[in-house]
Amino acid sequence: MKKLNDFPFAHVLVLGLAKSGTAAAKVLLANGKKVRVNDRNATKEDEVVIQLQELGAEVIVGGHPIEVLDEIEIIVKNPGIPYDNPVIVEAERRNIPVITEIEIAYSLVEGPIIGITGSNGKTTTTTLITEMLEKSQQPVKVAGNIGIVAIDAAQSLEKEESLVLELSSFQLQGIDKFRPKIAVLLNIFEAHLDYHKTLDNYVQAKCNIFKQQTSDDYLVYNADDNIITDAVRHAKAALIPFSTKKKLENGAWIDEEYIYFKDDKVISRDEVVLVGEHNIENILAAIAAAKLDGATNEGIRKVLSIFSGVKHRLQYIDTINGRLFYNDSKATNMLATQKALSAFMQPTILLAGGLDRGNEFTDLLPYLSNVKAMVLFGQTKEKLEDLGHQAGIKTIEFAGNVEEAVKKAYAISNVDDVILLSPSCASWDQYRTFEERGDMFIQAVHKLV
């Protein structure tokens, strides 16, 4: 077990278990800290609760009593717990610091960190950077919001290895000393306001990624995003822009034929497999970060010539009898579906629907020009049907679930059609997760063969 660096607190409250809280508690206990764990949803019989107690933690379950703050010097908070939680409110009143697990992981890492954040495209960019470094024979591990706990990755990280971290605004709001060698800021759209309350709070959380950087570090940023270009004026790191709209002397950019880093032709656009204009931004950001950490053009080309997308994020599945199938189950909002629809010029059959959060879908209307048919499911199918009628789409069908939707879409499709799952809704009316929904789509496509 690695030793924590520069963590002077003796009595720590870990608020919320899950994977990150459990990992944080174990590291803190191994470093001789007095640890109290509080989780509202856990029970005394849970295996992880028993395990932490055996390791020496005090575990309080079933609620969040204010008394858990007694004698506490710092809180390590699960990123999903909002800051209006009564325990957090009282902690701030008592001037008790509140951090997330990312800050603990940072105390364990000796080598360079590449941190990636943004409203959209984090997972794709994180994956691209990691694979570009791997193909360039650079030592690297990946973790963070991508599903791998940063602390766990940090435990096995060698000094010469880079750690690539996907970071959410929830994680970044709870940092203090965290300082990536390379920070990547992709884009900022209005999101998660139920958590952050205001757009300014959300922007500030995202921009925490470069808060502790110095002139020895790099900040890769979207030069086409006005919110970001305004925010990075205050950054101390060396600024490395990327843009799909203009030539850059000191960043990643694109013309009609090639993708460049500075004045270096990295790859021909024709060699890139990944579809979607938004993914060009992700590719440019990934190239900039990977090149700064030692990636070669050969390694980058090896990745971009075969990489067709992260699972459930505009992921190419198969071509069956001339029909191209794409899984974009991660599209749980209209913005994501807009980006998916914009990726294709050919006739498209859209599979959409899901949890009804009270949204209307009129913002999708300008993006339906290539949609020849819709197959709809879930609570929002009638709303989406109305949208289809407004767009003049003549073929609109209902399905009981995603598997049935695939069969119906294939039955009404022609050669060269795209069959796209991009629900524009959360999955929880029918599926536990968007991953489960996407897996059903993939299985249904494979059954067509």
Automatic annotation (TrEMBL):
Listed GO molecular functions? ATP binding; UDP-N-acetylmuramoylalanine-D-glutamate ligase activity
**Catalytic activity annotation:** UDP-N-acetyl-alpha-D-muramoyl-L-alanine + D-glutamate + ATP = UDP-N-acetyl-alpha-D-muramoyl-L-alanyl-D-glutamate + ADP + phosphate + H(+)
* Pfam families named in the record: Mur_ligase_C, Mur_ligase_M, MurD-like_N
Keywords, sorted A to Z: ATP-binding, Cell cycle, Cell division, Cell shape, Cell wall biogenesis/degradation, Cytoplasm, Ligase, Nucleotide-binding, Peptidoglycan synthesis
Q: Does Plastid show up as a keyword for this record?
A: no
Enzyme Commission number, as recorded: 6.3.2.9
Q: What class of enzyme is it?
A: ligase
Q: Which PANTHER family match?
A: UDP-N-ACETYLMURAMOYLALANINE--D-GLUTAMATE LIGASE (PTHR43692:SF1)
Q: What is this protein called?
A: UDP-N-acetylmuramoylalanine--D-glutamate ligase
Organism in which the protein naturally occurs: Oceanobacillus zhaokaii
Residue span(s) of domain Mur ligase C-terminal: 312-425
**Of which family is this protein a member?**
Belongs to the MurCDEF family.
Q: Which Gene3D superfamilies match?
A: Mur ligase, C-terminal domain (3.90.190.20), Mur-like, catalytic domain (3.40.1190.10), NAD(P)-binding Rossmann-like Domain (3.40.50.720)
Can you name a GO cellular component term?
cytoplasm
What does the UniProt record say this protein does?
Answer: Cell wall formation. Catalyzes the addition of glutamate to the nucleotide precursor UDP-N-acetylmuramoyl-L-alanine (UMA).
What are the Mur ligase central domain coordinates in residue numbering?
116-290
Q: Which residues bind ATP?
A: G118, S119, N120, G121, K122, T123, T124
**Entry's localization field:** Cytoplasm
Bilayer-crossing residues are none
Listed pathway(s):
Cell wall biogenesis; peptidoglycan biosynthesis
User: Would you say which domain of life the source belongs to?
Assistant: Bacteria
| GO biological process annotation, one example | peptidoglycan biosynthetic process
